[in-house]
Amino acid sequence: MTNKQMAEEILQKVGGKRNVISYSHCSTRLRLDLKDSSKIDRESLDKLDGILSVMDVAGQTQIVLGPQVQYIYEELQGIFPQSSSASSDAGSQKKKGFLGSALEIISSLFTPLIDVLIGAGILKGLLSILTASGLLTDASGTYQILNAAADSLYYFLPVVLAITCAKRFKTNMFVSVTIAGALLYPNLTALYDAGKAISFLGIPVQLTTFKSSVFPIIFAILLLSYVEKGLAKLLPEKIRSRIAPFFSLLIVVPVTITVFGPLGSMLSNTIAGFYMNLYGFNPMIAGGFIGAIAQVLVIFGIHWGLFPIIFSNIEKFGFDTILAVFGPSIIAQSGAAFGVWLKTKDQRLKQIAAPAALMGFFGISEPAIYGITLKYRRAFAAAIIGGGIGGAVAGACGARAMAVAVAAIPTFPAYFGAGFTGFIIAYFGAFLISAVLTYLFGFNDSMIPESERADANITADHTELGTSTCKAVAIKVHAPADGTVLPLNKVKDPAFSSEALGKGIAVIPKNGQITAPVAGTVAAVYPTLHAYGIVSENQEEFLIHIGIDTVKLDGKYFTSHVKTGDIVMPGDLIAAAEIDEIKKAGFDPTVIIVDTSGGSERKMTLLREGSVSSQEDLLLIESL
């Protein structure tokens, strides 16, 4: 199955375009906000090759796909751009509670930055290695240029977060970035560095440093979202775009510098101080605890709550220890998957376990978790033990990350420095411990469900191939327009009424909005725009024909809203027809739907008679 086909399948099985409020992705998951989660066909989703798991976390549906999620997300954008989603339908969003909303916001702000954060972290680590080995001095021009590349993201983090915040809170992006720029303005930074006291309108201001900060800019853009909404109500539309930014800057920048700056600094110091006190009490216990529970947090998607703490640690202390004790938990899942690969004789399971084990070395644990360890729970327990031991060793050695870089072999340079040797021992030790425990105690082939064994799958495949010519069909056909139902044998065209082209149904339309009766791919758009072919997901072929003999109009009075290759869902607009003009021209505008692939092998059950509305269930097609 191609990435495009996977995107199409996912969209259909979560209830179609009309059920999607918005969607995003992280490194392994497609995250969807849906109007009604009960419309998800979970059983079918779980059976799709490539989907590791489907879960609801904090009011959000998450589909775990592994590293290919980015490519499926891109295909989904092509099929269903965000701008055409129902994201503006705020009233349809479910209440997620404070914790769920906070986690969702944090995730949406930081996930777009992960790759570049890792890249910058690797570069910072390489510079540390080069300077420690004497191959480069921090006074050299080479170092200064490379350090600027590595450090700019962290220094200007408020500016980058202003962009993600603007997208999340739906504010003017240029105003948002300007606010962030004001926080890092050289004159203000110089005053802070000099320790000078200033005032604003006679009120003393406690200047704080905003470089690498997280909370002040989030608070600022959240405030901006409310300011912009208020200004939209107060300012006339003709001058709003020119005047609103003035008031936004006038209000938000002073409030951020005088209020959110000190508040954010206090919050960062409190969080970082609390963690460091806990870590300082006993780093081995703290590391072992985080190493053991880290992947449990990943399962529920709440590991994003650690990122503000990680940034606070780096901002306050110049390093972070959470990432260092978190790392062994990732590779421990790979170790458990490797243990399964060594132990099993099932070729299908080996094909799943091998890439799952490999991905952990690139910092991605979800393929191992959802493909292997959660399915065989003793393997997951072995990984928790391995991750806990690895985390304890990393904590005891004082291992730390000098930048935000999820532990993986390519990111090792970011961990160079104090405790680096201990970190390497903890990392590979977690892998070996988990692999050995899984091999000895965590898995055997008797745990594989009968239906998932390779020999069972081969039999099933052969059976399916043998019966492909008489494939079972059960499809609901939806009304293509508002109007009156007309049996096909009463259509005033013998080619249709005789069912020579196939069985089907017709609707006498009240208006010219013609919608897709089934989900599928547009296989044909006739040059005269009066007829369309759609192939459903199970390869049933449908003809949607607008009017009798309307081919003679040569496209006049018709407008197509789709093109060949488009994916459509029931109710999507495929064409518009000027019904009154068609009637005046002497043509019958009846809309006809014919299943051209089944003929006498199909049973048609009429689900509605008389008046019908577009998208209502109209016909049930079943194989005999």
Give a nutshell description of this structure.
The chain has 624 residues and is α+β, with helices and mostly antiparallel strands. It folds into four domains: 3-80, Glucose permease domain IIB (Gyrase A, domain 2, 2-Layer Sandwich); 137-278, no CATH class; 283-448, no CATH class; 474-623, Glucose Permease (Domain IIA) (Distorted Sandwich).
Describe this protein's structure.
With 624 residues, the chain is an alpha+beta fold. Helix 10 packs antiparallel against helix 11, helix 12 packs across helix 14 and helix 15 packs antiparallel against helix 16. The protein is flat. About 5% of the residues have low confidence. This is PTS system, beta-glucoside-specific IIB component. GO terms for molecular function: kinase activity; protein-N(PI)-phosphohistidine-sugar phosphotransferase activity; protein-phosphocysteine-trehalose phosphotransferase system transporter activity.
